[in-house]
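User: Just a sanity check before I run the rest of the batch. Below are the structure tokens for the first item. I only need the designed sequence back.
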């Protein structure tokens, strides 16, 4: 199997396809991993940290990292946009960072008019979130424009409107748009999302 992936085990972080997330890298081994990934164009997968330190069979999303800034002490700020969903197969290297083989996983992300009401409601919730957390109008407009694609809308809802990492992973691992919507609506409603002590809650 030729597919290789570098692993970045983290607690409480879930990457989704077509979603961009920032990361701050401070450990020396992971700084090396990021540079190697950039140089070799090998994707980095965000996996849930296990005390067993074994990840065969895990499902994750990966992407090529991009370095935003580096500090004099070697720390770096990066971002990763999820491009491939995969299942880890076996370890091929453990030191100084983990490398696994993987098999890509396909998803049925077809959307038809039977999802229109649900997608419209979810977009409305996310646009309300953006009003409070993206105060810059241009940034907010650019973000909202990306939500026209159902897969992007669903995945950003999972990132920003779902609090529990276990539930985020459940949505990420689901194999179809229909299944993701079903889980997301079950998780989200009816409930309130707090926007802070001095802001109103989103109710849905």
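Assistant: Here's the designed sequence for the first item:
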């Amino acid at each position: 199997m030729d597919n290789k992936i570098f692993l970045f085990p983290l607690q409480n972080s879930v990457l989704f396809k077509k979603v961009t997330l920032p990361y701050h890298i401070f450990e020396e081994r992971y700084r090396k991993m990021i540079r190697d990934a950039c140089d070799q164009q090998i994707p980095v997968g965000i996996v849930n940290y296990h005390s067993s330190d074994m990840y065969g069979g895990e499902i994750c999303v990966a992407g090529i990292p991009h370095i935003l800034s580096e500090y004099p002490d070697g720390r770096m700020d990066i971002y990763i946009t999820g491009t491939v969903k995969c299942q880890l197969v076996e370890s091929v290297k453990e030191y100084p960072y983990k490398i696994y083989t993987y098999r890509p996983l396909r998803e049925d992300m077809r959307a038809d008019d039977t999802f229109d009401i649900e997608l419209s409601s979810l977009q409305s919730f996310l646009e309300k979130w953006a009003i409070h957390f993206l105060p810059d109008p241009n940034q907010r407009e650019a973000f909202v424009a990306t939500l026209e694609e159902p897969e992007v809308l669903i995945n950003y809802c999972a990132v920003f409107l779902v609090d529990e990492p276990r539930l985020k992973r459940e949505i990420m691992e689901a194999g179809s748009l229909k299944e993701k919507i079903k889980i997301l609506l079950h998780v989200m409603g009816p409930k309130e999302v707090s926007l802070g002590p001095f802001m109103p809650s989103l109710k849905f």
